[in-house]
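Lab notebook: predicted structure, single chain.

Context: the supervisor wants predicted structures on file for every construct in the current expression panel, including those that have not yet been purified. This is the next one on the list. No modifications to the sequence; it matches the entry in the shared construct table.
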Amino acid sequence: MKAEDILPDNINIANFAGMQIRKGTVAAFIANARIHLAPSSTMEERQFAQTDMFEALPALQAIGVLDIFKIADAGLRKLVDEHLLASSGNQT
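Prediction complete. Output recorded below exactly as produced.
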C-alpha cells in the first residue's frame, strides 16, 4: 500500500477511527519533537512544540502510530506517556 492509496493527492483530510485527521499530522509531530529535543531551542519554542505535539496525540492514536512505533528518546516518551495517561482520566 502506498501513501496515495490511503490519502490521494487531492484530499487533505481523512476519517480514521471516527476522527478527522489532516494530511501532515505525523510529519508535524516529528518536526515538533525535533524542536522540543533540540538543545538550541528556547524554552518558548519547546513549549509551543510540546503543545502542538499534545494536540496531535489523539490523531496519532487513531491511526495507530503509537501502537506501532516507540518514541526513541526516553524523556520525550515519558512526557508523551504521562500526558496520555493524564488526558485519559486514569491518573493514579
